[in-house]
Amino acid sequence: MYALGQLVTRHKCANEDTLVLLFGFFLGTGVLGLLGVVALSIFPALQGMSAEVPFVSMVWVKPSGEFLFWTTVQGIGSLIAVCGLIRAYQIAEPTYIAVFEYSFIVFAGFWGWVIWNEVLDAVAMAGIFTIIAAGVIISIRSAKSEAA
Q: What gap in Å lies between CA 107 and CA 128, rounded to an integer?
């Protein structure tokens, strides 16, 4: 579905205002999140997942000032990044943009190591190398097609 959204953005929404698409994206994300909260309230059996994902059944905790600060920073960063991605998908080939979008996985692994001392396993490293290889292949292909 995500890939379909990228293609639709490029081929059907290229002339749409980027901020309208950004608003729609975050509105949709908010509505789906609200539906998830309602589902967890109506179907308590879903809360049995607490061993695997404890945040699902946690009670409300008043957020600290530091939490609110970093959440605001992350929110602003997300707005800027998603707006940039939407615009990129409007004006460029989705296969080219997707590789750069997935580079966030490389940075997530790096920051997980720096901040939480997490070490990537072999599968994660293979995924990172696959993303890098895809970027190299697409760059070479693009350079060859531009030269032709």
A: 10
